[in-house]
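Exercise: predict the fold of this chain.
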Amino acid sequence: MTTGALVHGDVARHLDFSDEEHPVALQLGGSDPADLAHSARLGQQWGYDEINLNCGCPSERVQKGAFGACLMAEPQLVADCVKAMRDAVSIDVTVKHRIGIDKNESYEFMRDFVGTVADAGCTTFIVHARNAILKGLSPKENREIPPLRYDAVYQLKREFPELEIIINGGIKTEAEIDLHLQHVDGVMLGREAYHNPYLMAGFDARYYDEAGDPRSRAEVLEAMLPYIRSQLLSVRAGDTKGGLRLNSITRHMLGLMAGLPGARHFRQTLSDSKRLALGDPALLLAAMDGMTMR
């Protein structure tokens, strides 16, 4: 969320979320300390659990707004932004960044950036283990073409053992997660969490020692129905807080059955615009018909 959208826009529309989503972080894009402090304060007032500063997005639109990965070239400005936000809120303020920008593959560049920002009180850094190419690559290409250099993130943790270092970039399996956790404090899943969300079903037991078997995919889907019904009721009632239409929910569930027989049928059913327009949550149950569930 850009600071401009929060300073000048509809705060409720941008920041409202459902209690079921906790814990949830508000990632901010901006480079003005005062605007970031104001936006962070709003985030805390609206119940967010963490404020994160985006120093990793490489898109040209973001660069024109003077934030994202280009901020890595201005570590003292980022430090000033972090301090302003930390002074404004009591929740965690974290930073997400790349390991470098453009052709600068110097480890020292990233190390000095982290050291400067850490001096301002940031203790958690989420590191996408690729350089950001600011000119010539699209955001999608920036997630795929620059080579992954996980060792640079491992070295960062060795050099700053007191900081929480979380690694991100190209991580898709539990085996890969387990390997990274031998070197850093945490792992962030990006696209894989979206395209194959059921991968996370066993994480509570595997990584957080929580007892019990994970819900099946069918149980996950059925557990969504009360939430969907409440959102649709808000839409129909014209609730001032708003509500989500069915397609705004189902489009984020298309990967739930990834890897199972019938997954294509599931995706096609949940993408049927005519049936979605009817706003009937039973569409989710219809999508399961004919699938081999486990």
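Check your answer against the key: Residues 246 and 279 are 6 Å apart (CA to CA).
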